[in-house]
Amino acid sequence: QISNNSKLIATKILREFSISSGAKRSRSPALTDRAYCHAMVAILLACDYKFNVEWFFSCLKGCTRTKLIPLLRVIGLVPISKTKTAQKGSEFTHHLKLPLPPVSLTITKRGRK
Question: Highest taxon of the source (predicted)?
Fold first, then answer.
């Protein structure tokens, strides 16, 4: 039997990360990226702000590294520098850069000199 919380979560995921068109549901690339970002933030919270890209990449289907790297930057993740004692594959471990830079709300126009 499915609990009410599971139904609630499933409904929210369908509503937030898919588009209804007739009897079908589809996912645009923007909504897919949004879902990846939400998943990465949840993993960051669970893993003390450290993120293993290799593990996340192994769980995904249809996502390339070239697509994942810009999403890491959007969230604010930076690679952890490799040490001499680090094992192979640690180059894909990232952590959250804190404090996050302030969001710039001003729009500046560049003119010709």
Answer: Eukaryota
